[in-house]
Design goal:
Largest sheet: 7 strands, mixed
Mean pLDDT: 85
Distance between the termini: 19 Å
Structural class: alpha/beta
Oligomer: single chain
Number of strands: 9
Helix content: 25-40%
CATH superfamily: Isochorismatase-like
């Protein structure tokens, strides 16, 4: 992938998976690589769970943010824990990137709360009865799904070893769920190869 926008999802201390040292190291690798290649870097954060929460959530790990300290092609966008609209996080990434004149044709995504499609007991994808649209979980999947739908011409890579989701409800990330999206590739970053 040539110049791209790196999207770092929810690497905030509040999320247990964001404190996993191996995940942090892999996300660091992605940030350093993006900076070295003069690519854009977008950190996406959840500021709080409720507007009544006075302290809010701590931002992205300082050590990750400091990798881009002074780097002019980096910024942070917010998304709400309970979105105010469909694909709020992806919309905020696109708006912020467009405003800053970042490119929006190629993305590389890493972070925590990976997720995928919600499934029925028989393994079929669960649909929302009100909207008749497939249901999904996970912040990374939501961002990737939103970018895929809102920018169908964009190419999106998800870096498998720089993502993590150990939530009991998530069980195991189904990387094939990402592959159901026509413009998404799942990568094993160390080799740069597509994941099986």
């Amino acid at each position: 992938m040539s110049r791209y926008t790196l999207v770092v999802v929810d690497m905030q201390p509040f999320f247990e998976d964001a404190n996993d040292e191996l995940t942090i190291l892999h996300v660091e690798r992605e940030i350093l690589s993006a900076v070295k290649q003069d690519c854009d870097v977008v950190f996406i954060e959840i500021p709080y769970f409720s507007p009544m929460d006075e302290q809010g959530l701590a931002p992205t790990h300082r050590r990750l943010k400091e990798l881009g300290k002074g780097y002019k092609r980096s910024h942070t966008v917010m998304k709400m824990m309970f979105p105010r609209g469909r694909f709020e996080g992806a919309n905020n990434i696109i708006r912020g990137s467009t405003y800053r004149q970042y490119q929006t044709k190629q993305f590389r995504v890493c972070g925590v709360c990976t997720g995928g499609w919600l499934r029925n007991e028989d393994g079929t994808i669960k649909y929302d009865e009100r909207t008749n649209s497939p249901e999904h979980t996970g912040c990374v999947f939501d961002i990737v799904l939103g970018l895929s739908k809102l920018l169908p011409e964009a190419q999106i890579e998800v870096v498998q070893d720089a993502c993590r989701d150990s939530r009991p409800a998530a069980k195991e990330t189904n990387w094939d769920d990402f592959r159901t999206l026509p413009n998404v590739t799942v990568l094993i970053a160390d080799s740069g190869a597509q994941a099986a």
